Amino acid sequence: MKDTIQWLKDMITSPEWLASAFWIIVKIMVIYIVARITIKIAHKMITHMMSAREKSPLKFDARRTNTIGRLIHNLISYTVNFICILLILGQIGVNLGPLLAGAGVLGLAIGFGAQSLVKDVITGFFIIFEDQFGVGDVIQIDQVKGTVEEIGIRVTRIKSWTGEVHIIPNGNIKQVTNFSIHNSMAVVDVSIAYESDIDRAIEVLKETTQTMFGKLDNIVKEPDVLGVQMLGSSEVVLRIVTECKPNTQFEIARKMNEEIKKQLDANDIEIPYPKTVTYLRSVKEAE
Protein backbone atom coordinates (compact mmCIF):
# COMPACT_ATOMS: atom_id res chain seq x y z
CA MET A 1 0.00 0.00 0.00
CA LYS A 2 2.82 2.40 0.89
CA ASP A 3 4.59 1.57 -2.34
CA THR A 4 1.46 2.38 -4.32
CA ILE A 5 1.01 5.71 -2.57
CA GLN A 6 4.65 6.60 -3.10
CA TRP A 7 4.38 5.66 -6.79
CA LEU A 8 1.34 7.92 -7.19
CA LYS A 9 3.18 10.79 -5.48
CA ASP A 10 6.20 10.34 -7.71
CA MET A 11 4.05 10.21 -10.83
CA ILE A 12 2.00 13.27 -9.92
CA THR A 13 5.07 15.32 -9.01
CA SER A 14 7.04 14.30 -12.10
CA PRO A 15 7.49 17.10 -14.67
CA GLU A 16 6.52 14.84 -17.56
CA TRP A 17 3.19 13.92 -16.00
CA LEU A 18 2.44 17.53 -15.02
CA ALA A 19 3.22 18.74 -18.53
CA SER A 20 1.06 16.00 -20.06
CA ALA A 21 -1.84 16.76 -17.70
CA PHE A 22 -1.51 20.48 -18.42
CA TRP A 23 -1.74 19.99 -22.19
CA ILE A 24 -4.65 17.59 -21.81
CA ILE A 25 -6.53 20.18 -19.75
CA VAL A 26 -5.69 22.86 -22.32
CA LYS A 27 -6.95 20.68 -25.16
CA ILE A 28 -10.17 19.88 -23.28
CA MET A 29 -10.76 23.59 -22.66
CA VAL A 30 -10.10 24.37 -26.33
CA ILE A 31 -12.53 21.62 -27.44
CA TYR A 32 -15.19 22.92 -25.07
CA ILE A 33 -14.74 26.55 -26.13
CA VAL A 34 -14.77 25.63 -29.84
CA ALA A 35 -17.99 23.63 -29.29
CA ARG A 36 -19.67 26.60 -27.55
CA ILE A 37 -18.55 29.00 -30.28
CA THR A 38 -19.73 26.59 -32.99
CA ILE A 39 -23.18 26.34 -31.41
CA LYS A 40 -23.49 30.13 -31.06
CA ILE A 41 -22.38 30.76 -34.65
CA ALA A 42 -24.76 28.09 -35.96
CA HIS A 43 -27.64 29.56 -33.95
CA LYS A 44 -26.91 33.06 -35.26
CA MET A 45 -26.77 31.77 -38.84
CA ILE A 46 -30.09 29.96 -38.45
CA THR A 47 -31.70 33.03 -36.87
CA HIS A 48 -30.41 35.17 -39.73
CA MET A 49 -31.72 32.70 -42.31
CA MET A 50 -35.14 32.64 -40.67
CA SER A 51 -35.26 36.45 -40.54
CA ALA A 52 -34.30 36.69 -44.21
CA ARG A 53 -36.98 34.15 -45.06
CA GLU A 54 -39.63 36.22 -43.25
CA LYS A 55 -38.56 39.36 -45.17
CA SER A 56 -38.60 37.54 -48.49
CA PRO A 57 -41.24 38.65 -51.03
CA LEU A 58 -42.35 35.03 -51.15
CA LYS A 59 -44.97 34.16 -48.57
CA PHE A 60 -43.91 31.64 -45.93
CA ASP A 61 -45.83 30.38 -42.92
CA ALA A 62 -44.29 32.18 -39.92
CA ARG A 63 -45.55 29.49 -37.55
CA ARG A 64 -43.82 26.70 -39.40
CA THR A 65 -40.64 28.73 -39.88
CA ASN A 66 -40.41 29.39 -36.15
CA THR A 67 -41.08 25.76 -35.27
CA ILE A 68 -38.52 24.33 -37.71
CA GLY A 69 -35.98 26.93 -36.58
CA ARG A 70 -36.26 25.77 -32.98
CA LEU A 71 -35.97 22.14 -34.03
CA ILE A 72 -32.77 22.84 -36.00
CA HIS A 73 -31.37 24.71 -32.98
CA ASN A 74 -31.96 21.64 -30.80
CA LEU A 75 -30.47 19.21 -33.35
CA ILE A 76 -27.30 21.29 -33.74
CA SER A 77 -26.88 21.56 -29.97
CA TYR A 78 -27.28 17.80 -29.47
CA THR A 79 -24.89 16.93 -32.32
CA VAL A 80 -22.12 19.35 -31.33
CA ASN A 81 -22.33 18.39 -27.65
CA PHE A 82 -22.14 14.68 -28.54
CA ILE A 83 -19.01 15.22 -30.69
CA CYS A 84 -17.51 17.39 -27.94
CA ILE A 85 -17.97 14.61 -25.37
CA LEU A 86 -16.34 12.06 -27.69
CA LEU A 87 -13.33 14.33 -28.30
CA ILE A 88 -12.89 14.97 -24.58
CA LEU A 89 -13.03 11.24 -23.85
CA GLY A 90 -10.38 10.71 -26.53
CA GLN A 91 -8.09 13.25 -24.83
CA ILE A 92 -8.25 11.49 -21.47
CA GLY A 93 -7.23 8.18 -23.06
CA VAL A 94 -10.53 6.45 -23.69
CA ASN A 95 -10.44 4.20 -26.78
CA LEU A 96 -13.33 5.40 -28.91
CA GLY A 97 -13.39 2.42 -31.27
CA PRO A 98 -14.76 -0.16 -28.83
CA LEU A 99 -16.85 2.57 -27.22
CA LEU A 100 -18.59 3.43 -30.50
CA ALA A 101 -19.03 -0.25 -31.35
CA GLY A 102 -20.50 -0.91 -27.93
CA ALA A 103 -22.70 2.17 -28.27
CA GLY A 104 -24.05 0.78 -31.55
CA VAL A 105 -24.95 -2.55 -29.96
CA LEU A 106 -26.34 -0.77 -26.90
CA GLY A 107 -28.35 1.55 -29.15
CA LEU A 108 -29.85 -1.43 -30.93
CA ALA A 109 -30.80 -3.02 -27.62
CA ILE A 110 -32.26 0.25 -26.36
CA GLY A 111 -34.19 0.61 -29.63
CA PHE A 112 -36.00 -2.63 -28.89
CA GLY A 113 -36.52 -1.82 -25.23
CA ALA A 114 -37.38 1.86 -25.55
CA GLN A 115 -40.07 1.66 -28.19
CA SER A 116 -42.02 4.47 -26.54
CA LEU A 117 -39.02 6.79 -26.90
CA VAL A 118 -38.68 5.90 -30.60
CA LYS A 119 -42.41 6.48 -31.00
CA ASP A 120 -42.09 9.92 -29.39
CA VAL A 121 -39.28 10.91 -31.77
CA ILE A 122 -41.04 9.68 -34.91
CA THR A 123 -44.32 11.35 -33.91
CA GLY A 124 -42.46 14.59 -33.22
CA PHE A 125 -41.04 14.65 -36.76
CA PHE A 126 -44.46 13.98 -38.28
CA ILE A 127 -46.01 16.77 -36.19
CA ILE A 128 -43.46 19.27 -37.48
CA PHE A 129 -43.31 18.29 -41.14
CA GLU A 130 -47.08 17.83 -41.46
CA ASP A 131 -47.50 21.22 -39.76
CA GLN A 132 -50.16 19.93 -37.39
CA PHE A 133 -49.38 22.82 -35.03
CA GLY A 134 -46.52 25.21 -34.42
CA VAL A 135 -44.90 27.30 -31.72
CA GLY A 136 -47.31 30.00 -30.60
CA ASP A 137 -50.46 28.11 -31.59
CA VAL A 138 -53.28 27.61 -29.10
CA ILE A 139 -54.14 23.92 -29.09
CA GLN A 140 -55.94 21.34 -27.00
CA ILE A 141 -54.61 17.83 -26.40
CA ASP A 142 -57.07 15.70 -24.44
CA GLN A 143 -57.92 17.90 -21.43
CA VAL A 144 -54.88 20.19 -21.78
CA LYS A 145 -55.37 23.51 -23.54
CA GLY A 146 -52.80 26.25 -23.92
CA THR A 147 -50.13 27.90 -26.05
CA VAL A 148 -47.37 25.80 -27.60
CA GLU A 149 -44.04 26.97 -26.19
CA GLU A 150 -41.77 24.37 -27.73
CA ILE A 151 -41.97 21.32 -29.99
CA GLY A 152 -39.01 19.09 -29.21
CA ILE A 153 -37.88 15.83 -30.70
CA ARG A 154 -39.43 13.90 -27.82
CA VAL A 155 -41.86 16.18 -25.98
CA THR A 156 -44.13 19.17 -26.58
CA ARG A 157 -44.42 21.96 -24.00
CA ILE A 158 -47.79 23.69 -23.60
CA LYS A 159 -48.43 26.66 -21.31
CA SER A 160 -51.99 27.12 -20.11
CA TRP A 161 -53.52 30.57 -19.66
CA THR A 162 -53.21 30.21 -15.86
CA GLY A 163 -49.43 29.71 -16.11
CA GLU A 164 -48.98 25.95 -15.78
CA VAL A 165 -46.55 24.30 -18.21
CA HIS A 166 -47.60 20.86 -19.43
CA ILE A 167 -44.92 18.56 -20.88
CA ILE A 168 -46.53 15.94 -23.13
CA PRO A 169 -44.58 13.10 -24.83
CA ASN A 170 -45.19 13.29 -28.56
CA GLY A 171 -46.12 9.62 -28.69
CA ASN A 172 -49.10 10.31 -26.40
CA ILE A 173 -50.59 12.87 -28.78
CA LYS A 174 -53.50 11.08 -30.43
CA GLN A 175 -55.79 13.97 -31.36
CA VAL A 176 -55.10 17.71 -31.50
CA THR A 177 -57.51 20.61 -31.77
CA ASN A 178 -55.80 23.70 -33.21
CA PHE A 179 -57.53 27.01 -32.49
CA SER A 180 -55.00 29.20 -34.34
CA ILE A 181 -55.38 28.17 -37.98
CA HIS A 182 -58.69 29.78 -38.94
CA ASN A 183 -60.64 32.79 -37.72
CA SER A 184 -62.86 32.40 -34.66
CA MET A 185 -66.53 33.16 -34.25
CA ALA A 186 -67.71 35.30 -31.33
CA VAL A 187 -71.28 34.62 -30.23
CA VAL A 188 -73.06 37.13 -28.00
CA ASP A 189 -76.55 36.53 -26.60
CA VAL A 190 -78.41 39.60 -25.35
CA SER A 191 -81.50 39.23 -23.16
CA ILE A 192 -84.22 41.89 -23.11
CA ALA A 193 -87.51 42.04 -21.24
CA TYR A 194 -90.77 40.99 -22.89
CA GLU A 195 -92.03 44.54 -22.40
CA SER A 196 -89.22 45.98 -24.55
CA ASP A 197 -89.61 46.85 -28.23
CA ILE A 198 -87.80 44.07 -30.14
CA ASP A 199 -87.45 46.07 -33.36
CA ARG A 200 -85.93 49.00 -31.49
CA ALA A 201 -83.58 46.67 -29.59
CA ILE A 202 -82.37 45.03 -32.81
CA GLU A 203 -81.79 48.48 -34.36
CA VAL A 204 -79.71 49.56 -31.35
CA LEU A 205 -77.68 46.33 -31.52
CA LYS A 206 -76.95 46.84 -35.21
CA GLU A 207 -75.80 50.42 -34.66
CA THR A 208 -73.61 49.36 -31.72
CA THR A 209 -71.97 46.44 -33.52
CA GLN A 210 -71.28 48.52 -36.63
CA THR A 211 -69.53 51.13 -34.47
CA MET A 212 -67.42 48.44 -32.78
CA PHE A 213 -66.51 46.94 -36.16
CA GLY A 214 -64.81 50.21 -37.07
CA LYS A 215 -62.98 50.47 -33.74
CA LEU A 216 -61.73 46.92 -33.03
CA ASP A 217 -59.01 45.60 -35.33
CA ASN A 218 -59.56 41.99 -34.25
CA ILE A 219 -63.02 41.94 -35.89
CA VAL A 220 -62.48 40.87 -39.50
CA LYS A 221 -66.09 40.87 -40.67
CA GLU A 222 -69.07 43.09 -39.89
CA PRO A 223 -71.10 41.61 -37.00
CA ASP A 224 -74.44 40.08 -37.87
CA VAL A 225 -77.49 40.55 -35.62
CA LEU A 226 -79.40 37.33 -36.28
CA GLY A 227 -82.54 38.31 -34.35
CA VAL A 228 -84.57 36.42 -31.76
CA GLN A 229 -82.70 33.30 -30.69
CA MET A 230 -84.97 32.09 -27.88
CA LEU A 231 -88.10 32.98 -25.91
CA GLY A 232 -87.25 32.33 -22.29
CA SER A 233 -89.41 32.26 -19.20
CA SER A 234 -88.77 35.93 -18.46
CA GLU A 235 -86.64 37.23 -21.33
CA VAL A 236 -86.25 37.41 -25.08
CA VAL A 237 -82.77 36.37 -26.24
CA LEU A 238 -81.24 38.15 -29.26
CA ARG A 239 -78.11 36.65 -30.85
CA ILE A 240 -75.14 38.42 -32.45
CA VAL A 241 -72.32 36.62 -34.29
CA THR A 242 -69.11 38.09 -35.62
CA GLU A 243 -65.99 36.68 -37.25
CA CYS A 244 -62.74 37.69 -35.59
CA LYS A 245 -59.07 36.79 -35.58
CA PRO A 246 -58.02 33.43 -34.06
CA ASN A 247 -58.39 33.15 -30.27
CA THR A 248 -59.83 36.67 -29.87
CA GLN A 249 -63.50 35.64 -29.66
CA PHE A 250 -63.67 35.86 -25.86
CA GLU A 251 -62.06 39.30 -25.78
CA ILE A 252 -64.43 40.54 -28.49
CA ALA A 253 -67.47 39.07 -26.71
CA ARG A 254 -66.53 40.82 -23.45
CA LYS A 255 -66.09 44.20 -25.15
CA MET A 256 -69.34 43.79 -27.06
CA ASN A 257 -71.25 42.90 -23.90
CA GLU A 258 -69.86 45.99 -22.19
CA GLU A 259 -70.77 48.38 -25.02
CA ILE A 260 -74.19 46.77 -25.60
CA LYS A 261 -75.10 47.20 -21.93
CA LYS A 262 -74.25 50.90 -22.11
CA GLN A 263 -76.29 51.42 -25.28
CA LEU A 264 -79.31 49.52 -23.96
CA ASP A 265 -79.32 51.68 -20.84
CA ALA A 266 -78.96 54.83 -22.94
CA ASN A 267 -81.98 53.84 -25.05
CA ASP A 268 -84.13 52.76 -22.06
CA ILE A 269 -84.29 49.14 -23.22
CA GLU A 270 -84.85 47.01 -20.16
CA ILE A 271 -82.67 44.01 -19.40
CA PRO A 272 -84.73 41.36 -17.52
CA TYR A 273 -84.02 40.60 -13.90
CA PRO A 274 -85.81 38.41 -11.34
CA LYS A 275 -89.06 39.95 -10.04
CA THR A 276 -91.22 38.84 -7.12
CA VAL A 277 -94.90 39.67 -6.73
CA THR A 278 -96.31 39.45 -3.20
CA TYR A 279 -100.07 39.12 -2.75
CA LEU A 280 -101.55 39.87 0.72
CA ARG A 281 -105.05 38.71 1.50
CA SER A 282 -107.17 40.95 3.72
CA VAL A 283 -109.02 39.67 6.78
CA LYS A 284 -112.42 40.03 5.07
CA GLU A 285 -111.24 38.03 2.08
CA ALA A 286 -110.00 35.32 4.44
CA GLU A 287 -113.50 35.14 6.09
From TrEMBL:
Membrane topology classification: Multi-pass membrane protein
Keyword Ion transport among record annotations: no
Keywords (A to Z) from UniProt: Cell membrane, Membrane, Transmembrane, Transmembrane helix
Main location: membrane
Mechanosensitive ion channel MscS C-terminal domain mapped to chain residues: 187-271
Family note: Belongs to the MscS (TC 1.A.23) family.
Protein name: Mechanosensitive ion channel family protein
Domain of life: Bacteria
Subcellular location, record wording: Cell membrane
Domain Mechanosensitive ion channel MscS: 117-180
Pfam families: MS_channel_1st, MS_channel_2nd, MS_channel_3rd
Residue ranges of coiled coil: none
Boundaries of every Mechanosensitive ion channel transmembrane helices 2/3 domain copy: 74-115
Chain segments annotated as transmembrane: 20-39, 71-93, 99-118
